[in-house]
């Protein structure tokens, strides 16, 4: 049976992510155990890893590093053992080299880029960006398989005040529009992340999570 670790580091909609992953697995008849954990050893023995995140970049980064051995086990599992990884919202942003919320904070550095405050144009658009938006794929990828796109397709649910600016366009998996183009998803090698919340995105989100469970990078 596949085991998926949802990392508990004091941030994120853990139960929502767990339940959505369980539903996605059930819909595809995938035998999977979805475990919420802060145990480094679990990351070493699991098959896939999900890193949720809600709140400020610095707080989430500090929370991850505060759990003894957790950051090291995450690096080992994702970068050395190349286990499939999905970051959600701030969990995706932490993949960047640097975050600029409340000063400059070092991220995991897995994808070159910075996380900066949203600056939509016109400035009358509210920040945080909160609500449903269509997403536009930047390239083909297994995580996006079987989805329809555009204004009439299923939408994704966003809640964020900061955006991921990837330096290499090849790392951008999908974009969305909110007073300009923003990064909706990134992917590189065995790592992927979504700025939107798939666990709250109904049809689109369940499809993406199902694709993640079947993904063979």
Account of the 3D structure:
The chain has helices spanning about 15-25, 40-45, 55-65, 70-80, 90-95, 200-215; strands spanning about 1-5, 30-35, 50, 85-90, 95-100, 105, 110-115, 130-135, 135, 155-160, 160-165, 170-175, 180-190, 190-195. With about 220 residues, it is an alpha/beta fold. It has one domain (about 1-215): Class I glutamine amidotransferase (GATase) domain (Rossmann fold, 3-Layer(aba) Sandwich). An 8-stranded mixed sheet has the order 2-1-3-4-14-13-12-9. Strand 1 (about 1-5), helix 1 (about 15-25) and strand 2 (about 30-35) form a beta-alpha-beta unit. The longest helix has 14 residues, at about 15-25. The chain starts with a strand and ends with a helix.
For this entry, give a set of tags:
Rossmann fold; eight-stranded mixed sheet; four-stranded mixed sheet
Brief sketch in words of this structure:
The chain is an alpha/beta fold and 217 residues long.
How are the strands ordered across the major sheet? 2-1-3-4-14-13-12-9
Instruction: Give the low-confidence spans.
Output: none
What is the name of the CATH architecture?
A: 3-Layer(aba) Sandwich
Tell me the span between the first and last alpha carbons: 19 Å
> What average pLDDT do the residues reach?
94
What string, H for helix and E for strand, traces the elements in order?
EHEHEHHEHEEEEEEEEEEH
Q: Let me know the CATH homologous superfamily.
A: Class I glutamine amidotransferase (GATase) domain
